[in-house]
Amino acid sequence: MTKTKNILFIMADQLRWDYLSCYGHPYLKTPNIDKLAKEGLLFESAFVQSPICGPSRASFYTGRTVFSHGATLNQVPLPIGELTIGDYLRKDNIKTAVVGKTHMKPDKDGMERLGLTKETDIGMIVSEPGFDPYERDDGLHPNNWVKNYSTVLTYNKWLNSLGYKGDNPWETWANSAEGPNGDLLSGWKLRNSNKQARIQEEHSETAYMTNRAIDFMNENKDDQWMLHLSFIKPHWPYIAPSPYHNMYSPNQFYEVVREDKENQIQHEVYRAFTNAQVSKVFSKREVREAVITGYMGLIKQIDDNLGRLFEFMKQNKFFQNTMIIFTSDHGDYLGDHWLGEKELFHEQSVRVPLIIYDPSGNADSTRGQREKKLVESIDLLPTFLEALNSSTSTHRLEGRSLLPLIKGNQINDWRKSVFSEIDYGLHSARDELELGPHEARAFMIRTEKWKYIYYKGFSPQLFNLEKDPNEFEDLGQNQNYEKIRTELKDLLLKRLINRKNLLTVDEKFVLKGQDVESEGGVMIGVW
Amino acid sequence: MTKTKNILFIMADQLRWDYLSCYGHPYLKTPNIDKLAKEGLLFESAFVQSPICGPSRASFYTGRTVFSHGATLNQVPLPIGELTIGDYLRKDNIKTAVVGKTHMKPDKDGMERLGLTKETDIGMIVSEPGFDPYERDDGLHPNNWVKNYSTVLTYNKWLNSLGYKGDNPWETWANSAEGPNGDLLSGWKLRNSNKQARIQEEHSETAYMTNRAIDFMNENKDDQWMLHLSFIKPHWPYIAPSPYHNMYSPNQFYEVVREDKENQIQHEVYRAFTNAQVSKVFSKREVREAVITGYMGLIKQIDDNLGRLFEFMKQNKFFQNTMIIFTSDHGDYLGDHWLGEKELFHEQSVRVPLIIYDPSGNADSTRGQREKKLVESIDLLPTFLEALNSSTSTHRLEGRSLLPLIKGNQINDWRKSVFSEIDYGLHSARDELELGPHEARAFMIRTEKWKYIYYKGFSPQLFNLEKDPNEFEDLGQNQNYEKIRTELKDLLLKRLINRKNLLTVDEKFVLKGQDVESEGGVMIGVW
Question: Does residue A103 belong to the interface with chain B, where contact is any CB pair within 8 Å?
């Protein structure tokens, strides 16, 4: 029977769970991703540990909640003591390359304290962090940042070599459009989201990263590997090359999901989020119309490129021994609930697509099925380790392998709730609410029926997802729901207490108990 | 005005809060410690983060709860990413030496992953961990361990040089008595606790460590330093040299604090603790009578040696510029509540003495006073940093500087509850209850009036400390106290959520907000 040798871990950035045809989008057809779902298992209830890029990714990579790993905000390095996928798999001599975005930064203070520099092998891996470097590109390169880079971005070098001129063709060609008089229309500005990017599709970031994934596979046919192909899109700048820039029109969009009564909700944190510039802007019809056009085009483009990649993999027999995961780091409000961007816990933000294709015969019984059980992004790393039959200790991991679900095993003790959290310390809402740097925290517990949000320093929110799947009616202050709120708060407490904090020894140490001492000759309580 | 230049941080091991005359012991007179209290401030309600040696010390040293630093058990290394007092003060060029016990171990896996070895300067400091090595001696040296040491223990070398023969005079002389026929009576056995150790007092561990503290001060008169003088006693082996071995007799003991009804308590975890061998043994009169004799003698001996040390410090003008702290890492049941050792949360176990002498004029208004406010061991490191006017960032620290209390400031927002926790994974109770390695956890919230204990997987305990200061009546299941239990559980949740997990950036980063991105040219939500 075929076994899993390699892992291709594909992530799209800011892709909502419901913007794929296999997740129900009526107009955005994604046949290649749908086909993966038909050959694998589609998870209908997959949630991220935090609906913010950096913290969410750090949880995917460490297999630990944000509460545990501590990279609570974007731009915040994962502490040097945390282990990532790369650290785990490297022990089994598996290459762990990244093509695209991780949003991770090196823990410079931690490295300096321990005398590590990027120039050493260990220092380089730690600063990646954890992965083997291959084609790391975090995908946001505004001009002022590019000026400060010590080396030219590989993607920019490539664009230059193709004749796209300038210091930062990432911005001026790949993420800009052109006006009628040849003037540059920046992709940063949402009004340009339905215009055509000044680049040929095959030179865009999505195509380039797909090429690089193919390069990696070609170069490593004989090795065992885990490749993290991490697309930068459909994250903003929301601007797509032809023919994707005008493939969709507003009559093919989802209706906006919002009600006037939401705007009257008195919850302070929600209100502060709706007051943010990005929320005000996304609440306008013309903004949605421009942005969603670009957003859907970028997703369609990813699907086409994945078709190209999967075809290559089939021709080169990678499909027989490679587990393929497709997911996203969080969603995008796109004006729903009077909000833009992500960060809060509505389904649009915290729920993601998750498809796992397992090449092994074990998975045959679930191919093409849809799994309703609640899963979390921290479940992926344990899944990888089990699929690869890794010998690495998993005592730090807080998720649960999905392999039993993929095998179609009967499982009676699966989790009944998922957990997510945010630190909105870098959001304008923290300023508006005049909170200190450690105060802007909120925690979600979501069961099949309920969504409970505990805000540090504020009253909670509660939604009945069965009766109110659109989360319009906040029951957080309703006296009739005191009991259910208490129960859900209890689940939150239990979840926090379950944090794995015993990092430096594994379970075997604990199970050995006091034998370590008594074998040494220590006597406790001997008369 | 005099300012604090140095810090002398004295810790006794396993010293109960109430076994000093300044804390009310009627027969055990400790005039030197009492005098320190008269010249400083005595804290009446000081609690440790965990009533277990290693975890408790790790919290003293890191300024972080066990929940956060993760060294939840004895013999478990602090993760390499955690910073200790040494790491904080070294940045200000302060020497940070240890004389005696820390119970800390190097994080070998963490070091190996980062390519660090003990042989390098950084590796040595990390493996200490954090402190500069001076006279580190963890104070438990059974023969089978000593055989495996790569170098001879310095204290053993010294004893050999004085004529105490053998491979391990720590055990055979300093921690053994002699029978009538010259046979060796091991101090490990509790029955020998009221016998005379085979060593002259001035050669005992307590005297030796005091000498080494004096050596350190003599050698470092011109430098700024933090010396952690960490006595190994009155921790077991409970055996004292003459004249301390028979200074106290049972009519000078506290009455045993226990009631038959406690023994009928149906709380599973408490019952499993009372079933441990050490608890059964300490519940016997003859064991208490032997052990407490030795225990009180060892405490008296520490007081006398501190008298000698303080006299040296006065003569050498160290008293003018050295902040002196006296405390303990946890208590000792000594048969109270039908228990031996420590680990659970009764006052005998979790409450400690804490005296702080601050040489600066700022502290004059509180000299000789007794402070009732609830304080925790994680408050010490912030106190040291403030006293030394350190510039180090305190964003990882979870405690609060005690300096405002020492200065006698009016403080209206002081904490209303203290927090402590245990992982009883290495205790026989875990076996008896058939718990997994991550399941043996419990958490205490104690206010002035209430003590609430949340057990993972078991019902809670609740005590009314006003009406029932001896904690005989467990209200954990009593229906009438549902509301107060809910309130206290809420405090626990709040406390857990307050964990400082943002390690790699400080508050300034958060307060800068999205400026980092917008200055770079990133535009979010711009039409």
Answer: no
